């Protein structure tokens, strides 16, 4: 199951470190291409390096195409380093201006290939022979690395490379960096089929890479500013370097992001040169695209009054700042900074034409019903009234509000200061997770004291949505109830939104009683509306509350009723499917859950709240672990982290990290210590006393810490943390948390040597929740119950089939997962007559220390071994003595004379 970043492609998180690379051949070029550098060196980019090295190994030619400052030279150096590490031959050429002449380029190649002085490098035969000799000597292909090939991209030079690739028959690979795509694509069908392209988006910095450019950890506001900065720069390293310098001078990232513009002198010379290098037809298309930013090719062709498709392909080939949007060959998209530049230039040089283009584009979008795009064009044309009408239409759709992707700074005062329009735009930004921009919009809106009626009600509701977005659940709980009382005649949709925000806030505050009261309020208000959108949201919240209440069967029924409604379509359907997937998984229908997520995960994460997003994503992570192992699950989690944080904020990121930590803690002791120990540092960071968490996040964090204590043999510390969680969750009937905490308590009780109490603990949880469909919450932690599994199976057999089928199914599944033999236990007399295998001296030492009352951690400290070693000795002792508990082992050892 693949996870793609919703902003346009998978962007996995990576571990970064600063370093200097030592390629003598490429060091001079670094000064021309500083895109990946910092003041102290170069930021390593393992994600990009891995992708580039794999492409170079699997293709005859690999191209890196981007403007200045995209880190192309640094990426080439990674390929060269990999060749050196593998002892594979590599030839490196850094082109300069004179290499535009064929003879000069040939001389550079001759020196790089180390041909004899008298041999003519323009004749490929001698060069080919030299390269093939190197390949034969190393028994590996030769990698031919060419930096800044745009300075030498002419017919003779291209012909030379093509001849080498054809003659090399796979023994010669070429990796080329250039400011624009290689002209004519090297003109070879054979090469085109074995060509890998890395464009500006592939070379862009991810958030995980960009954060390394700034000293020390960033605050929540600075992280939000960085996200906005990445959006403004498209992750272009050169632009980020400019931001780094301003940040070091004392500016905040949010201020830099708001102020950064491609129309500034810092970019103007570079963009001027880029525009001048374009052929006439692509230049005209770019100029028209400038005011609009992203537009279908059909619109651009109409505005050009001509413009065949090859014009647009030529534009994307010759200008790295233009791309086909999202892989859609019909829509062209400008880099945001290049768009600023083109718009400012057109307004300065041809203001009337700029106005005319924007108005024609707005009318074109209106005809096709795209209100958001039309409003954006009207805003840029200065016609705020027409923009406001289209924004209101987008916000009042009967099937639910359309998110309005406009930022506060994009709106002129005439729109920003209209309460109705401010509410429409602010709600759209809040639903898209942009809490900072919504807050900014509120700050620049009229005072509530000057409003009355619907305007005041809606602006107060917008403030509640911002508070909810910032996880200020106490404020939402206090103010949302008051809002619902004060504005009984408010619009139905607004009242339902307020009630559902209150329900989610109360649930995050571990108050399910008030959450259900708020949900009933939403149901009552929604009864006046036939909106499938509202009724589906109510079903989703009801399902989430039922899941927390340990009743996934009821939650699944809620989801399926909502999905059966014909009006449940679009984004809200995808959101509902994420919660349904978690219900299916919890009830043990893992294959069905995987199929639902395969169809809905990526789209579902574009909409909703933290709870719905994590329902789908955490289920996907657990399924990936079952299917492909812990490493694959952790990879999926890291790939999603940046998107989840940007869309849903810090609370969602914390839950995603806790899901990752729980994955690690489920691994066997020896594997966790060797392979995943570093992952647990995230738990220490989250548990830092200065960190601020909602009560629900804090409860889950404490469960993770208790799990870690138990895994490391400190069962007493684990039990101390579990006590309050068990009491509070049972009192509030949050039975899923109570069941999961009960499993941990049972594992700790086994470590304490009280298997009888552990069996009672886990069976009480199974008996109360398994009949309601809770299944995976037990089975996912089956490894913790391994010592109890035989006793659990015995207990089920003694019931003689008289127990609830759900309880029996859970117990049998745990026994099967723990490989308990499916046969009745031997009689007591038979067990007594079985010969006892001799214990080793180490096992006798462990058993004697256990008999003196020491716990696993204390035994490990006394023997100077690890806790897992003690557990392994006890496992062997139980097997040899034919017992299942520590108490029974001590008694049997004394009975047989092993212990005195």
From TrEMBL:
Q: Which UniProt keywords apply?
A: DNA-binding, Transcription, Transcription regulation
Tell me which InterPro entries the record gives. AAA+_ATPase, AAA_22, P-loop_NTPase, Sig_transdc_resp-reg_C-effctor, TPR-like_helical_dom_sf, Tscrpt_reg_LuxR_C, WH-like_DNA-bd_sf
Question: By its UniProt entry, which Pfam families does this protein fall under?
Answer: AAA_22 (PF13401), GerE (PF00196)
The HTH luxR-type domain, residue ranges: 832-897
Give the domain of life.
Bacteria
Q: Does the keyword Acyltransferase apply?
A: no
Q: Which SMART domains match?
A: AAA (SM00382), HTH_LUXR (SM00421)
* An example Gene Ontology molecular-function term: ATP hydrolysis activity
**Keyword presence, Transcription regulation:** yes
- For this entry, list what GO says about its biological process: regulation of DNA-templated transcription
Q: Which PANTHER family match?
A: DNA-BINDING TRANSCRIPTIONAL ACTIVATOR DEVR_DOSR
Question: What name does UniProt use for this protein?
Answer: HTH luxR-type domain-containing protein
């Amino acid at each position: 199951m693949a996870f793609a970043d919703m902003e346009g492609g998978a962007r996995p998180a990576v571990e970064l470190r600063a370093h200097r690379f030592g390629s003598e051949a490429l060091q001079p070029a670094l000064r021309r291409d500083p895109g990946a550098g910092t003041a102290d060196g170069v930021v390593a980019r393992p994600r990009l390096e891995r992708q580039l090295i794999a492409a170079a190994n699997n293709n005859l030619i690999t191209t890196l195409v981007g403007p200045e400052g995209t880190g192309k030279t640094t990426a080439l150096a990674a390929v060269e380093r990999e060749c050196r590490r593998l002892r594979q031959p590599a030839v490196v050429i850094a082109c300069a201006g004179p290499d535009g002449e064929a003879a000069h380029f040939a001389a550079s190649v001759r020196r790089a290939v180390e041909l004899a002085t008298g041999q003519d490098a323009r004749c490929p035969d001698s060069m080919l022979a030299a390269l093939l000799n190197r390949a034969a000597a190393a028994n590996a292909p030769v990698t031919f690395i060419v930096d800044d090939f745009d300075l030498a991209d002419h017919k003779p030079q291209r012909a030379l490379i093509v001849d080498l690739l054809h003659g090399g028959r796979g023994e010669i690979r070429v990796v080329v960096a250039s400011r624009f795509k290689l002209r004519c694509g090297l003109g070879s069908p054979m090469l085109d089929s074995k060509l890998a392209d890395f464009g500006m988006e592939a070379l862009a910095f991810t958030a995980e890479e960009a954060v390394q450019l700034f000293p020390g950890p960033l605050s929540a506001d600075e992280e939000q500013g960085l996200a906005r900065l990445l959006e403004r720069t498209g992750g272009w390293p050169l632009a980020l370097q400019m931001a780094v310098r301003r940040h070091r001078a004392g500016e905040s990232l949010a201020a830099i992001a708001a102020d950064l513009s491609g129309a500034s002198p810092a970019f103007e010379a570079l963009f001027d040169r880029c525009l001048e290098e374009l052929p006439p037809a692509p230049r005209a298309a770019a100029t028209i695209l400038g005011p609009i930013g992203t537009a279908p090719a059909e619109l651009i062709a109409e505005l050009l009054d001509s413009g065949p498709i090859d014009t647009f392909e030529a534009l994307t080939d010759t200008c790295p700042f233009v791309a086909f949007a999202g892989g859609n060959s019909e829509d062209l998209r400008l880099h945001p900074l290049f768009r600023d530049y083109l718009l400012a230039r057109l307004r300065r040089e041809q203001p009337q034409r700029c106005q005319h283009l924007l108005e024609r584009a707005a009318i074109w979008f209106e005809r096709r019903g795209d209100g958001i795009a039309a409003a954006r064009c009207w805003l840029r044309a200065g016609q705020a009234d027409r923009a406001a009408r289209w924004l209101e239409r987008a916000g009042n759709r009967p099937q639910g509000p359309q998110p309005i992707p406009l930022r506060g700074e994009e709106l002129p005062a005439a729109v920003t200061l209209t309460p109705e329009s401010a509410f429409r735009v602010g709600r759209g930004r809040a639903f898209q997770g942009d809490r900072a921009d919504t807050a900014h919009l509120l700050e620049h809106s009229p005072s509530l004291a000057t409003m009355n009626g619907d305007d005041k009600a809606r602006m107060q509701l917008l403030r509640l949505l911002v508070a909810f977005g910032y996880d200020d659940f106490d404020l939402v709980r206090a103010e949302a109830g008051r809002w619902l009382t004060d504005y009984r005649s408010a619009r139905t949709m607004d009242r339902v939104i307020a009630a559902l925000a209150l329900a989610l806030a109360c649930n995050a505050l571990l108050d399910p009683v008030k959450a259900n009261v708020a949900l009933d309020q939403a149901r009552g208000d929604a009864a006046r509306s036939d909106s499938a959108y509202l009724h589906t949201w109510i079903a989703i919240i009801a399902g989430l509350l039922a899941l927390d209440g340990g009743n996934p069967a009821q939650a699944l029924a809620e989801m399926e009723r909502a999905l059966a409604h014909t009006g449940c379509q679009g984004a809200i359907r995808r959101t509902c499917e994420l919660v349904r997937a978690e219900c299916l998984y919890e009830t043990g229908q893992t294959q069905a859950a995987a199929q639902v997520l395969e169809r809905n995960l990526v789209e579902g994460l574009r909409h909703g709240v933290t709870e719905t997003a994590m329902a789908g994503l955490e289920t996907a992570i657990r399924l990936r672990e079952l299917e492909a192992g812990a490493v694959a699950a952790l990879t999926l989690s890291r790939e999603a982290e940046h998107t989840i944080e940007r869309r849903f904020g810090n609370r969602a990121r914390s839950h995603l990290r806790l899901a990752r930590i729980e994955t690690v803690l489920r691994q066997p002791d020896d594997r966790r210590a060797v392979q995943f120990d570093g992952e647990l540092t995230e738990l220490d960071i989250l548990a830092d006393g200065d960190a601020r968490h909602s009560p629900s996040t804090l409860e889950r964090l404490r469960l993770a810490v208790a799990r870690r204590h138990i895994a490391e043999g400190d069962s007493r510390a684990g039990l101390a943390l579990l006590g309050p969680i068990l009491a509070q969750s049972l009192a509030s009937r949050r039975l899923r948390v109570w069941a999961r905490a009960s499993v941990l308590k049972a594992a700790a009780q086994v470590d304490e040597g009280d298997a009888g109490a552990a069996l009672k603990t886990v069976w009480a949880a199974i008996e109360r929740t398994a009949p309601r469909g809770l299944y995976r919450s037990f089975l996912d932690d089956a490894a913790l119950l391994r010592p109890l599994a035989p006793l659990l199976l015995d207990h089920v057999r003694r019931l003689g089939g008289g127990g609830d089928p759900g309880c029996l199914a859970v117990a049998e599944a745990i026994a099967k997962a723990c490989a308990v033999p499916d046969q009745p236990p031997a009689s007591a007399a038979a067990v007594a007559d079985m010969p006892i295998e001799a214990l080793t001296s180490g096992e006798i030492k462990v058993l004697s220390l256990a008999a003196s009352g020491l716990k696993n951690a204390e035994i490990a400290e006394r023997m100077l071994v690890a806790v897992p070693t003690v557990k392994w000795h006890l496992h062997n002792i139980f097997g040899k003595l034919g017992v299942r508990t520590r108490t029974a082992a001590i008694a049997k050892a004394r009975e047989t004379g092993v212990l005195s």
